[in-house]
Design brief:
Main location: nucleus
CATH topology of the largest domain: Dna Ligase, domain 1
CATH architecture of the largest domain: 2-Layer Sandwich
Strand content: 35-45%
Number of strands: 16
Family: Belongs to the eukaryotic RPB7/RPC8 RNA polymerase subunit family.
CATH class of the largest domain: Alpha Beta
Shape: elongated
GO biological process, one term: positive regulation of nuclear-transcribed mRNA poly(A) tail shortening
Structural class: mainly beta
Number of domains: 2
Radius of gyration: 22 Å
Helix content: 10-25%
Number of helices: 3
GO molecular function: single-stranded DNA binding; single-stranded RNA binding; translation initiation factor binding
Subcellular location: Nucleus
Distance between the termini: 69 Å
Order of helices and strands: EEHHEHEEEEEEEEEEEEE
Length: 221
């Protein structure tokens, strides 16, 4: 039996509008993960960010049918998509606008209703060759583990300049050279992406420090 459309969001007083969320609204309504990522990525290069149109289906239990139906659909959209990742589009940082909420389709033998939603979002998609800033999360003899917002990036020992040697006795352990320049946990560094691994729900990057102007970022005094 085909799905039957009986629950239309247009039945309720508030009409669907393509209302853009400003920066304050995005951070206010975003999940904690999305809000954190917007903050961490604010210093990255703009070419890694894209403003695109996406679609998502919201599945609602019958208990949500009522005057607040549209608001529930919107909030579930923010919760379900912000902070997620797809191999095709990258990390969804924040929903900026809801363009339309379609008529609900009843699921046979279940009573649940699916609402198709079209929206716009800021996504973060890294590509090979891009240079960006990262925060060091772990340092060991194998290499350096970093995070760029929601993206994890690993730098192999072989991609670290040879004058930077691992010092396991330092507190915390770090890579340092004869000039006492060092890279340790929580430091900010500038790296270059040399490759990415794309899964269905995640993206992982490989980086290098073997190029000009890469390495530790001097903190402001």
């Amino acid at each position: 039996m085909n799905q039957v459309c009986i629950f239309s969001c247009r039945c309720w007083p508030e009409p669907v509008q393509s209302k853009t969320r400003n920066a304050t609204t995005v951070l206010k309504h975003s999940s904690p993960t999305a809000a954190r990522d917007v903050h961490l990525l604010s210093g990255a290069y703009n070419k890694m960010f894209y403003h695109i149109s996406l679609e998502h289906e919201i599945l609602l239990h019958p208990r949500y049918f009522g005057p607040q139906l549209m608001e529930t659909v919107k909030q579930k959209l923010f919760t379900e998509v912000e902070g997620t990742c797809t191999g095709k589009y990258g990390f969804v940082i924040a929903v900026t606008a809801i363009d339309s909420i379609g008529d609900g389709l009843i699921q046979p033998n279940r009573g649940f209703v699916v609402y198709p939603v079209k929206y716009k979002a800021i996504v973060f998609r890294p590509f090979k060759g891009e240079v960006l800033d990262a925060v060091v999360t772990q340092v060991n003899k194998v290499g350096i583990f970093t995070e760029i917002g929601p993206l994890s990036c690993f730098i192999s020992r072989h991609s670290i300049p040879p004058d930077m040697q691992f010092d396991p006795n330092a507190t915390p352990p770090c890579y340092k050279n004869a000039e006492d320049e060092e890279i340790a946990q929580d430091d900010e560094i500038r790296l270059k992406i040399v490759g990415t691994r794309v899964d269905a729900t995640d993206i992982f990057a490989i980086g290098t420090l073997m190029d000009d102007y890469l390495g530790a970022i001097a903190s402001a005094s």
